[in-house]
Write a structure and sequence with these properties.
Immunoglobulin-like, 152 residues, three-stranded antiparallel β-sheet, 7 strands
């Protein structure tokens, strides 16, 4: 048998396994006597405490280090399972949509390639010359004096 601890928000409820006699609670040196098997700590500040309950010669001890928060929401197992299942189904749905929309585009040419006219080849204008690669002019031979002419 062990002490049972239940946490809800900032309230911690400790249940003693002893059933007979007057139960004495000891929380870090603060003693309390009563007939209650349950001890309720309201507005617990998450600080660790030593808890014990005793009756006659029997005594149960516990070190309680419970983290509590005021704005926490309690979720049961079916709610958590439902959230995870819904998330997986939505993700799977998005993956299927992306697959089907991308599957149709695999065999097609790009949209810009389909707009060109295929009948006559149109002449393109010459590319704009790059000033770093200008051809050698007859009057500027001294700039390129170190270059030797090649015969083609």
């Amino acid at each position: 048998k062990e002490l049972l601890v239940e946490i809800s928000g900032t309230t911690v409820t400790i249940t003693c396994p002893l059933t007979e006699g007057r139960i004495e609670w000891d929380l870090s040196g603060k003693k309390q006597e009563g007939d209650e098997r349950k001890y309720v700590l309201e507005n617990h500040d998450s600080s660790p405490i030593n808890v014990s309950c005793s009756s006659n010669q029997e005594k149960y001890n516990m070190y309680l280090h419970a983290r509590v928060c005021a704005n926490c929401e309690e979720l049961d197992a079916p709610a958590v399972a439902g959230i995870i299942t819904a998330d997986l189904l939505i993700t799977l749905g998005v993956l299927i949509l992306v697959y089907y929309f991308s599957k149709d585009r695999k065999g097609r040419a790009s949209p810009s390639a389909g707009t060109r006219q295929r009948g006559q080849k149109t002449q393109r204008p010459p590319p704009v010359p790059n000033p770093d690669y200008e051809p050698i002019r007859k009057g500027q031979r001294e700039v390129y004096a170190g270059l030797e002419t090649r015969g083609f």
